[in-house]
Amino acid sequence: MSRSSDTIARSGRRIAASLAGSAALLLGGWYALSGAEPQPPPPAAEPELAVALGVRPADVDPARRTFDDFDPRPDHVAASPPPIEPVPEDMLTPERRAWLADPGPRFEVDTSAQARTEAARAAATAELQRALDGQRSGLLRACGGKDSRGVFLQATFGADGKLLARQFADNGSAAAVSECLQSQPFAMSIPPPGVELTVRGVVAPP
After folding, report:
1. Angle 96-102-107 (CA atoms, 0-180°, nearest 5)?
2. DSSP annotation of 181
3. Which of 91, 102, 148, 201 meets the CB 3.0–4.6 Å disulfide criterion with 174?
């Protein structure tokens, strides 16, 4: 019975020693942590150079490619910009006041004249091509270029319909033929277009 009591006593002492050692380690760790100097706070972020120099940061970044109100739908119509406010009278320069008082003559586009010019250009192009179609074989045969491709003629007609200038050109493969055609006599006229026109025709299709 005494031997069993001794064993229990020794086990109790060992457990008590282990608990005491653990408590000592905990107290030592707490003391070491509590005695350390506190870490200094991180330095405050310095302002950007532009802000430090007194420049106000932009409300909108122009380099930003996306916008909060962007609508990718193809039928989306962007909002119209605000109207431009007129400059107050007392802020106008003397030159601006003089111009507002007398802005000079206004030039209006004559759309009917433009339509007549385009119609005359289309008619001149058709007449030039008709003449080239009738003379193509003779012109190319005279210059040894009956098998040439990509030869064109640019012709300028006066308001009276007479041929003023002509220039044969090629796509780079018939330079000798174009030079020969330029030296050949070529005369034609078109119905008076009323304005000077420059049109282009095809001698040998590309």
Report:
1. 105
2. H
3. 148
Whether residue 179 contacts residue 139, with contact meaning beta carbons closer than 8 Å, is answered with no
Neighbours of 123 (CB within 10 A): 15
- Inter-residue contact 195 to 120 (CB < 8 Å): yes
Nearest-CA neighbor of 188 among 158, 151, 162? Answer: 162
C-alpha 54: how far from chain center = 34
- Given a contact cutoff of 8 angstroms between Cβ atoms, the answer to whether 134 and 176 are in contact is no
Provide the whole-model pTM.
0.47
pLDDT digits (tens, 9 = 90+) for 139-187: 899 998 888 888 999 999 999 999 999 999 998 878 899 999 999 888 8
* Structure token pair of residue 65: 């490619």
Beta strands across the sheet bearing 151-157: 163-170, 151-157, 197-204
Alpha helix locations (H) across the chain? 2-35, 49-52, 94-101, 111-142, 175-183
| Residue of 54, 193, 65, 6 lying closest to 118 (CA atoms) | 193
